[in-house]
Design a protein that fits this description.
Layout lengths: L6 E2 L6 E2 L3 H5 L16 H11 L1 E3 L12 E3 L7 E2 L3 H5 L20 E8 L4 E8 L6 H7 L3 E8 L2 H17 L18 E3 H4 L3 H15 L6
Antiparallel strand pairs: 1-2, 3-4, 4-5, 6-7, 6-8, 7-9
Helix pairs in contact: 5-7
């Protein structure tokens, strides 16, 4: 356990010499992956491309966000992942399809729903396809659809949603709880009383911000 053990890291394929006692006590086996030892620029670029990032700036270390673009030519979005996250198996690009449901590279909707009991509105996004059940789920939980807007790309809908939320919070309006309790999606809500706005006025703001961000959400 005190002897250095020459092995190959399964993530970056570097030759490393950890001690078994360190690995057993929770230390990372590869100093390259976790920032202790520096990759060469050439090797770092190779690993980045394998992980889905085409770098557009110099490599610093595994923990520093690395500016580049997604290697998916249909996406080609600007991204800033950390190399250590790529080495651990995380995807490089948040705009490409995720297995968790919402596809940032597919058609999507931005929606505004309303809950009368809470007197609250909620902004959200979902896939624009027949398989999507998000709005039906909201309806079963007391959230009634007010308006929707389609987008060619999920990443556009995501950007609009985040911009609207930032706008709401800049008004000093917090999220709406249900009798003091959190619930799924509560972070995307706003009190109509606190906002001093109607649903139509909130939707007008969504449309305005959408137009400012994307001149033509749907071609």
């Amino acid at each position: 356990m005190e002897t250095k053990w020459e092995c190959v890291c399964p993530q970056c394929e570097s030759v490393v010499t950890p001690m078994l006692k360190h690995v057993r006590t929770g230390h990372k086996g590869c100093g390259y992956c976790w920032g202790g030892l520096p990759f060469t620029e050439k090797r770092a670029v190779e690993l980045a491309i394998e992980g889905g990032l085409k770098p557009k700036s110099p490599y610093v270390n595994t923990k520093t966000p690395w500016k580049g673009v997604c290697v998916n030519r249909e996406c080609n979005s600007e991204i800033r992942p950390q190399l250590q996250n790529l080495l651990s198996g995380q995807g490089a690009c948040k705009y490409c399809a995720s297995g968790a449901g919402f596809d940032l590279a597919a058609p999507a909707l931005v929606y505004l729903v309303f809950n009368a009991r809470l007197n609250a509105a909620k902004i959200g996004i979902c896939g624009d396809n027949e398989r999507n059940t998000r709005l039906a789920q909201h309806s079963r939980n007391g959230w009634i659809k007010h308006r929707t807007q389609p987008f060619n790309w999920g990443r556009q809908a995501f950007t609009v949603e985040q911009t609207v939320l930032a706008e709401w919070r800049s008004w000093g309006c917090g999220s709406v709880l249900d009798e003091g309790k959190k619930y799924v999606g509560y972070k995307e809500t706003i009190s109509l009383s606190q906002a001093h706005a109607t649903l139509d006025e909130l939707w007008e703001d969504v449309e305005y911000l959408s137009d400012q961000l994307f001149a033509s959400p749907v071609a």
